[in-house]
Amino acid sequence: MASGGAQSHTQSQPGAGDGAKPASGSMEYQLRQYLLLLASLVATVTYGAGLNLPGGAWQVDDGQHHAGDSILQDAHRHRYLIFYYCNATAFAASLVVSLLLLVLDGKNTGWWEALLRVVMVLDLLGLMGAYAAGSCRDKFTTIYSALLVCAVFAYVVAAFCWYLGVLALPRKKHRDDHNTAKNNDTSAANVHGYEREELDEVLMLLATFAVTITYVAGLNPPGGFWGDTKDGHQMSDPVLQENYSRRYRAFYVCNTTAFVASLLIIILVVDKKLTDKLSVRFVALYGLTITALLGLMGAYAAGSCREVHESTYVICLNAGVLAYIFLQVAVAVTVKNRCRCFQTVCDYASKCLLGVKGWCFDRPQDHQPDPQISSDSATTTCRDQKHEDEAVEVEKARSLVMLLATLVVSITYQAGLDPPGGLWPDTRDGHRFLLKRHTLEAAMILDLFGLISAYAAGSCRDETTSIYVVALAGVVLVYVVIHIVFFTLDHKDNHRDKEKLETRREVLLLLAILAATLTYQAGLTPPGGFWPENDGARGHRAGYPVLHDNYRPRYSAFFYCNAASFMASVALIVLLVNPNLYRPGIRCYALYVCMVAGMFGLMGAYAAGSSRDVRTSIYVLTLVAAVFAFVAIE
Predict the structure, then answer these.
(1) Regarding predicted confidence, which is higher, 259 or 610?
(2) What is the pTM of this model?
(3) Of 194, 188, 163, 204, the residue nearest 31 (C-alpha)
(4) Residue 151 belongs to some domain of the structure
């Protein structure tokens, strides 16, 4: 009974697979939504970091450097190469993880899950290498980050060797061990199954956001970077490092510690075989969680303030939060223990009373069910089931509306605060903003009417290009409709695959929102920045992309790949709202084609916009070819 109750309760949770049996899938399948969120956020931060490299970009052409080129590439060549390759690897691996999660359905265990683990490890290692290369500027930060990276890498190698050893065991012994572990897991799930699953989900969510926050903060520390070498400054080094060296070191140590601790939390949560014992799991997960939270609070206190009294205030707030958490835990444990004792006494008294009743008053006819009561019970059960189904549909609609509303609000808010074309750096000629550009004016107004119109107006500088961009969305919609019409003529609707379609719809929707978010902001603020002022001699116009003038073919490739990915993603979101469209679209793979096209457009835009030389672009194109081969095999 306890097991059945735990399973039914787990099935009702969104993280449990929306009706799928948790016991039938691996940990990757059970946490697929959170792994997809992790892959999406990693793709977000690596895409942004690749297009806007740490250290900033040159603002003017001085004969030695081109405006829009990375300063880090000239100041720290080797660090730049390590960062670029690791960041690109993490970005491509995140997309592959997303595609693998689309393949998993809880039944195809084996090589797909093994491949997913390998790609996830590659993703996290690439992210860690990019962080170490992009955030270090001196000996202290280099040594500290290198020690943490080596420790995590050693742990991953040891875990991978242990995993290979398990695979190398004889089949019978491996099957016996698997059955024993399965029985142990079942008995443990009877007591702690639902609680441990909830714990894994919360820790996964916390670690995911901690990784993305600390990654961005480490690559772009507070205070910015030096843009010149005046007064002995080192180009592209953090300003905080020179003016407040102790504060910068405290920020870096806390931020890096939180970053690495969050990565270890993710690895431990996914690889549950390494943490079967409750004591080991408690020490590892809870210890790393406390370390990550303390690191985040310490980094915030050191990086957000410049005065001692401000830092003291922030530290006192952090101490108050920790005290409240410990007090809450202590109260909860005390109340739980008392309730458990009281419940034990009540259960014992109930059993005694039921025993007395059965011994004194029990008769055979008492066990005959009343037909009227049975009929009423069946009617009530049907009515409750109907209300429950309606509640599930309402909850799905609410979740979809909230997700789309969050997407629109987040990207339009950022576009409003950081408008396309940039801002005037001074007040010459009476300029305050780029109010003379009709493109900016149109983008700010059309943000209220639709993302497509705003993107077309904000990313283009002529009407013809805007028309081409808007037409891409129409082409995608027409293609999907034609594909559905021609490939679903003889299809008969099967209600058994409804749950599978809903699961794949959720994955497609999250991937489409990821691509739309990345490409929208990248289209409005392309890599390399904008010209800050007019230069008639060189033909530069304020508000126009620097990449457009210095690297015209590369900018064209970036622009059209980014626009194609954005339009395909938005069209995919529109189609996924209507069940009459997305169900046949998923069955005939029309929506998969749109999603894959959007992913390749995203990677093409990354390859064209993140680098300025051929060698680094070839590496990214090789990754694109690898992803294409994976999709073809799949």
Answers:
(1) 259
(2) 0.60
(3) 204
(4) no
